[in-house]
Amino acid sequence: MSRAGIRxxxxxxxxxxxxxxSQVSRATLGLREMLxxxxxxPGQRIAEIxxxxxxxxxxxxxxxxxxxxxxxxxxxxxxxxxFTASEFTLADIWxxxxxxxxxxxxxxxxxxxxxxxxxxxxxLRKINCAMEEISIVEIEGFTEYLTLNESxxxxxxxxxxxxxxxxAVDQIYRSPFVxxxxxxxxxxxxxxxxxxxxxxxxxxxxxxxxxxxxEGTRAExxxxxxxxxxxxxxxxxLADGNLMETIPxxxxxxxxxxxxx
Length: 261
Prior knowledge:
By secondary structure, the protein is mostly helical. The protein has two domains: 3-85, Arc Repressor Mutant, subunit A (Orthogonal Bundle); 90-248, Four Helix Bundle (Hemerythrin (Met), subunit A), CATH 1.20.120. The chain is built from eleven helices and four strands; from the N terminus they run H-H-H-E-E-E-H-H-H-H-H-H-H-H-E. Helix 4 runs parallel beside helix 8 and helix 5 runs antiparallel to helix 8 (190-212).
């Protein structure tokens, strides 16, 4: 084969690979969104052929998407073939949130222990200041608030300089109701605006201070406590039936047989 032919063949293979990856990504995102909004119910076998047509992907990328979401815990394989949406008890969710607290605490401790230049903390302070200035009355403002909040957390992961730990945090964030963005459900509640939000922002300031002082144990303790706000947040939503109906993925919670609360 000529050099031109080799290049053409390589280009075709590259384009095919990119298209395949794009289909898997599209299938994964679409399937996750359907699970969280209740289009696919726990216990019911998910029919692959109509789902493949709905998402606009072939069967192979869809099966890869199922495998990925099975790894995340959002779907589970049925005994003979196929998949169904997973169901979570409150005990499952509390365990996932506690795991998040442990991992984020470890990140904060490592950030304090490995800090080389205090100037690297300035972006964290700017993020926190920007969050404090945002009005969350309008959805646009709250969306920006959530984006900044995630940026704050990920900036600490960067300072920890531990890729294995970061991958573990990314994985636990994919669990329903666990990531910091879960706060969206309480955007309009007075309790969130008047109590939880100021408390969370004070945590941010204290975590930055502990990292700057290289107080690893303190930074870890603060980060763990900060993560537990997510549990308090969900507990308030669970206590309000109307509010619970607005939570993406709420139908996946098996409340009545939740075990411990």
